[in-house]
Structure formats: structure tokens, C-alpha cells
Amino acid sequence: MAQITAAIVKELRERTGAGMMDCKKALVATEGDMEKAIDFLREKGLSQAAKKAGRVAAEGAVVAYVAEDGKTGAIVEVNCETDFVGKNENFQALAKSIAELIVKTNPADVDTLLASELDGKAVKDVVTEAIAKIGENISVRRFVRYESAEGLVYSYIHGGGKIGVLVDMKGGDAELGKDVAMQVAAANPQFLNRNEVPASELEHEKEILTEQARNEGKPENIIAKMVIGRINKYYKEVCLVDQEFIRDGDLTISKLLKSKNADVARFARFQLGEGIEKKKENFAEEVAAFVNK
Prior knowledge:
By secondary structure, this protein is of the alpha+beta class. The chain contains 13 helices and 10 strands. A 3-stranded antiparallel β-sheet has the order 1-2-5. A 3-stranded antiparallel β-sheet has the order 6-7-10. Strands 3-4 form a two-stranded antiparallel sheet. A hairpin with a 5-residue loop joins strand 1 (59-66) and strand 2. Helix 1 (6-16) packs across helix 8 and helix 6 runs antiparallel to helix 8. The longest helix is centred in the C-terminal third of the chain and has 19 residues, at 220-238. The relative contact order is 0.12. The model has no long low-confidence stretch (mean pLDDT 88). This is Elongation factor Ts. It comes from Succiniclasticum ruminis DSM 9236. Residues 82-85 are annotated as: Involved in Mg(2+) ion dislocation from EF-Tu.
């Protein structure tokens, strides 16, 4: 049986948020085994971190890290429950350290990342400790890592972490890299160019546009021409290189890149909390339900 010292009890408390006496009892019951003690507390419902882990986390931050040589970069979305905690210095530091770890270790997926070592501990354990310390559920949701084959990686974070962008670009310079990343953040293109638009999605769009033209009472012999024109407008909305440059409407991104002898290989854009269903609180219903019990 491992010796149960005050330091071990303190570590268990930091990792779980449980009371000191509960932590000591858990360690005694598990003969000083830290991981088994954590499970013991969770099973007994005494781990505050475990309780918080079930709550919806749709706030937080998207953060970026680019290596000093500019060849490798990553963006990661780390979620918490409130915007207040998302702006917390400790939370931001945790998210940035995870982004840096992604660049350095190239994990295959989130599960691999959570099992990776950060400051001598598994990332999942570091996150659990942060949950206990900060008092909210925290989760690492997703990440993208680019290692540029021929160019450099550029990042842009908007609104303190509300939107994060990563761009892999050959040629140009840092100013252009930032401009392109800002374009992606502002205009939200879905694809790099027309070749990336799936045929099924394009056909679906054509069907909608054809019906729109018919509903407008347009004759069949000109509907096809109208659809071609509207499809070109659709490309300008969803394809990065076809979009108008946000800083100069007379330039498309394609022309901007050409003028700088540059080419974008790929890009990624994360918007904080997109796709996460947030729980809607109705306090009137909550009070009524309590009274009726």
C-alpha cells in the first residue's frame, strides 16, 4: 500500500474537486492508487468534476498556435459553459497550451490528443483538474493541424476566440496571409474553389434556382440561362477564390492571390459553439415544477 501523504490527498482534491476527507477515504479504500481513487469518488458521486462533465459546454474559445518557422499551425476549440470563463486567463492559457501540443505532437484525433502528455500529465487529467478548479464543464471539441508542404501556415482569431481560421498558403507574405485568413473569417466560404463543390450539392442548388425562376413566371427558354448566372453568383458566395475581397470589392480573392504570386492550398474555419445545442433555461417553469412537487 502506497503511503498516503498530504500532497497526494491535495492532488486528488485538485483533480476531482471532492472534499479533503472524502479524498483521504478514497485513497485509503484504494490503497493509495490515484486512478482508482478518482473512480471511487466518481462512483460515490463525490467528484465535483465528474458532475460538471455532464453539463452543456457551448462557450469557450477557438485558439491558434503557429510554430516559429511558420510551417506548422493548429486551431483548437475548447469549450466551457459560460462566456465569462471563456475569457478567464487560466482557461485561455489551457487552450493555448493544448494548441501548441497539437502542433508539436500531431495527434490523430481528439481521443489521441486527450491521452497525450502535457506538463507530465495526460491532457484529459489536466482538463479534469481545470474543471474542478474553474467550476465548469470543459471539453476539447475539435482541432485542425496543417503542416505546409510548400508554403507557410497563417492564423487569425476574431472576437477573442469566437472565430478561428487557419490557412495554408504558398507564396505571398505575412500581410497577405492575414488578409486571406480574415476573409475566411468574415465571408465564411464553404469551399476553396469550384472543383471542391460536390456534384450533388451543385445539382440541388440548380434545382432550387430553376424552381425559383419558374415561380417568378420566367419562360422555360430563358430559365437555363438564368440558372447559369445564378450559379455563378452562388460560386461567389461559397468559394473562397471567387469571393470579392473584403478590403477591395474590385478584386476577387483569385485576382488578389495572382497579383501576389500566391496560392491557397487549404483553409479551415471554426466558429465557437456551432452545431452545439445549447440548453434553454426557463426559470418560470423550473420554479413551477419545484412548487408542484
